[in-house]
Amino acid sequence: MTQRGYGGPLRYVQGPGVLADLAHYVEPLSKSALIIIDGFFWETLRPTIEKAFRDKDIESRFIRFGGESTDAEVSRCIDEGRAIGAGVAIGIGGGKALDTAKITAFNLGARIVTVPTIASTDSPTSSIGVIYSAEGVYDRVVRCGRNPDMVLVDSALIVQAPARFLVSGMGDALSTWYEARSNLESRSNNYIGDGYSASIGGAQIARACHETLMRDGRAAYQAARGGKLTPAVENIIEANTLLSGLGFENCGVSAAHGIHDALTALEPTHHYFHGEKVAFGVICLLVLENRQPEELREAINFCLDVGLPVTLAGLGLAQVSKATSPRSASSPCSRAMSFTRRRLR
């Protein structure tokens, strides 16, 4: 395929304290905003944001996110947005809150702003939202037509979260180059529009994501455990959020994310984050592709050094079997579990 496609957010701003500028960036987009905010920040961030929007004469309606990006949750948010004629939908929180905001905006025909409060996934920059069941089982991907108009990443807020969130983001980001390479080699389409070949820029961003992880990941992990916002932490926040987001959308995903999706069918994995399951999927991908032992060792050692799981036991699945799977033996979940039991015991 000779047609190439590239996409990304209109604006990306990262740094300590930039959340204070949210109203400034929203004002040119619309004077009516629907804000979907994680319950954890309902009492702490909402009053400040509400005042800032009043000062800019932006009508706002806040919704406390229900915890899962389900069809029902999206429908609830769409109804609230229509009630005020929202011209922009803003997601504040983790990846599922942001996905809900993106899908809501898509259905409203509204602009999109994402404000991640953790750096645990690469959802904030992408045009893709994921729908899960109320039990947290992966359902489907929704393509929202365009990327966010604004991505605002307050690194001082993010570093206050437990280091496990940043580590999970590294697990998600670890897949970016490996999966990009799979798709480049197989000439598979990316997620721009109906799918195009990856551009040079998209591939280089995916590669830069991997290089940043290998260079700064371990130092960022140690700093984040102490709540310190160092240059390494800033670099990993960018790698987890911007580089990984642009990399996966412009190059595509492969088996690491497919294995993640299958794992969500098993209840014990619901206690683990998206990036933790993806990291395990990376190890499976490298084995499936018969990559060189040195490369497999590099990935495993990185995961071990920052606390990412590399075995089924590390995801609470030490006793997994066909009998414990809610799906048939021919399902993607069962096939993934069969492979990992054979190869990665």
Name of the top-level CATH class of the largest domain = Mainly Alpha
Estimated radius of gyration: 19 Å
At CATH level 3, the topology of the largest domain is: Dehydroquinate synthase-like, alpha domain
The low-pLDDT segments are 328-345
Please provide the count of β strands. Answer: 10
Rough outline: globular
Proportion of residues in helical segments: 40-55%
Mean pLDDT: 92
Give the oligomer, counting copies of the same chain as homo and different chains as hetero.
single chain
Order of helices and strands: EEHEHEHEHEEEEHHEHHHHHH
How would you describe the overall organization of this protein?
The chain has 345 residues and is α/β, with parallel strands linked by helices. It has two domains: 4-158, Rossmann fold (3-Layer(aba) Sandwich); 163-343, Dehydroquinate synthase-like, alpha domain (Up-down Bundle). 49% of the residues lie in helices and 14% in strands. It has twelve helices and ten strands. The strands form three sheets. The chain has a six-stranded parallel β-sheet, sandwiched between helices. The protein has a two-stranded parallel ribbon with strand order 1-10. A two-stranded antiparallel ribbon has the order 7-8. Helix 4 (95-108) links the parallel strand 5 and strand 6 (111-116). Helix 6 packs parallel to helix 10 (274-288) and helix 7 (200-225) runs antiparallel to helix 8. The longest helix has 26 residues, at 200-225.
In short:
The chain is an alpha/beta fold and 345 residues long. It has 12 helices and 10 strands.
